[in-house]
């Protein structure tokens, strides 16, 4: 079946719903005080499950992938790992609703990276979006003494990692087989997660009594399955396959829905809400995302993957 742009957009919206649902789920699963597991172990388990599932279906593509695809996938995987590691640590120190909106800043950061890496001159609305979203971030994350919380800072750095990931997928998903690229990047994230968990704990076990791969607290098992299957294996496969069929502008605009899903699921699953100032800040972040991607006047052509 020929994939149309509207089909790719619709499926990418589904991807953002998967990602938005993970904010409260991961926060709960990595809460050590509530029987959760260490951050690196959870990431390793999540990425390993996803990599094994994808490799099972696409092992021929993986075996046929040239060295340059492995190198590109490893680089994309490094950015993917940095985003998730920083996000998961940050979730332990801030609310999942706030984390969703701060993570969404990666959409606004993509035009900045486009100047440096993709050699694309951002349109004026991109800078307007950056300024608006920055004001929203300040309202959402700064305390009364104008100092951001440590958790919010970690989540902001995770947004930088995810912005690099979006730019890297736009750069490499076209010239390389998307299924092989998806398996390699997720496998790279799994290897990095296991390495850091071993350095931290000295064992492949989570180090929490009663928690093993196939059992343990229901919140950990549910998070592992939801994150490993839907939010990683399915979501990143769809992103790598579909992103070449739409434009980087559409992709970034669609991804701005993720924090909205995150806030919805955080309220449903954890009962989290924001303060009035927080809601205003979240609204400004969303406005900044939209301003950064909606063309004002003439529009420069999008950068095709691999350009």
Explain what you see.
By secondary structure, the protein is mostly helical. The chain has one domain. It contains twelve helices and no strands. Helix 1 (about 5-30) packs parallel to helix 10. The relative contact order is 0.23.
Task: Please describe the topology of this protein.
Elements: H1 5-29, H2 39-64, H3 67-91, H4 96-103, H5 106-116, H6 124-141, H7 150-172, H8 178-201, H9 218-242, H10 248-255, H11 258-270, H12 276-293
- Report the portion of residues in β strands: under 5%
Oligomer: single chain
* Percent of residues in helices: over 70%
Helix and strand composition category: mainly alpha
How would you spell out the order of helices and strands? HHHHHHHHHHHH
Q: Label the overall shape.
A: globular
Give the helix tally.
12
Question: What tags apply to this protein structure?
Answer:
single chain; 307 residues; mainly alpha; globular
The gist of it:
By secondary structure, the protein is an all-alpha fold. It is 73% helix and 0% strand.
